Model the fold of this input.
Amino acid sequence: MLKEIVIAIESYFRAHRFISRHKLWKWILIPGISYALLFIVGMYFFWNSADSAVTWLSQRLGIDPWLHRQSSGLLSFLFVMGGIMIRLILVLFWFSLFKYLFLIIGSPVFSYLSEKTDAILSGKDFPFNWPQVLKDMGRGIKLALRNSLWQTVYMICLLILSFFPVVGWIIPVVALFVECYYYGFSMLDYSCERHKLSAAESIEFISKHKGLAVGNGMVFYLMHLLPFLGWVLAPAYAVVAATISLYHQDKSEP
Done:
């Protein structure tokens, strides 16, 4: 798994060189700017909603008056940390739903970009036709709904665990890895569907190559640390990097 994570990370550097060499910037910037603007608006409302939800729950449970009566610095610290962790989990959960919505809307562009990358790498021609595009979109929507359902189940379980002091502090890290896996899954599936793998076969294949999915998602989220430019480049870079990582994975297998 570690080897595959390294392959996925290296693929982002290869993706940058690939995009520059083959002048694919228009396919990067158009969806990227749309994503960045939606990300800014979405995260503003997501964080305010999470803050309001935690504040409402704290008031309903009477936590602040109870902590004041206890006069314990340790208890106050534990509950403050717990509140921060819960907010982070809620933001990750809502961001994952936003992510799937954007993947569904942007699937035609991402599918085309993955196809173009594969065509250049392999020297094969993948003829464009609308019926296939619509079929791929339908499959993408089904898989996105399937993944969002499973991720929601995991996130709810992690949210419950985040209420427990100390243990709950590592939950955002676990939740982030879950996010990375499912985002990378979506990026890898564009290549799987192009190579005629059914949805079930794609799920089985990617579950055997979790490192590629996790590594792809990790760099995608790390790119968000670079304000705006990272947000613009992250989605399309992830598509190209996923396609390249699978190409090199196939080459390395006997």
Summary: Residues 56 and 214 are 34 Å apart (CA to CA).
